[in-house]
Amino acid sequence: MTPVSHRVVGRRVETADVVTLQLEATDGSRLRYAAGQFNMLYAYAVGEVAISISANPLGGGPIAHTVRNVGSVSRALCGLQIGDTLGLRGPFGSDWGLDSAAGGDLVIVAGGIGLAPLRSVITQVIAERDRFGTVEIVIGTRTPEELAFKAEVESWRARSDLSVHVTVDRATPGWRGTVGVVTTVLPRVHCDPAAIALVCGPEVMMRFTALALMERGMPASRIRVSMERNMQCAIAQCGHCQLGSVFVCADGPVFTWERLEPLLAVRQL
Fold it and tell me: Which CATH architecture has domain 4-92?
């Protein structure tokens, strides 16, 4: 429960309001985590917020968090510079379960900042590419300027062993790619019903993506989504992330759609 001091050793501006911070513990310790888990980041004298880990768990380098400036804590985190420190506790929560997907196909669908927790998956899959079958990646964002990890996405698109589709809700001058929400791209994606789908983004995007995948024959039990609803304590004590009988911080953030969909269907939740 006590935050461990971490120093910012790398900082990259992804978009106008998104920054990726690379962190190392000031005591030299290394954090062990799995793709899909999150940490609680503490901006000194400001507060604490849950942020997914966006680094490759097998990378061996600094841990990375990609933060969007949406409130006082995230604003303070985005303002940190190389050499500054913050508190970190974790990791918490469930992961994407990549080991259980080994040997099969993957369909990875990211919407907006939802690409951050899926970046850890994609980089791990690339590092262990021979463990998986076909890998389809669909990335959606509002405009080309709001696409995070631009250089990495281009490197993924250049690979012959990945199929990467990028679409934007609204094109701006110079954009020659696909325009439309992610579900407009899914009909062009190889989608074996036996594949595992990993989906992260706004709730409405995840709803329609899951529906589209099930219409392609994929069972709800093989669709995994990541939720980040108002997590504040990370240990299922404060109740802020409670969703019916489920606590997102402790039981998630990764759930099968089979488990999550009935809960999201209840408006009061």
Answer: Beta Barrel (2.40)
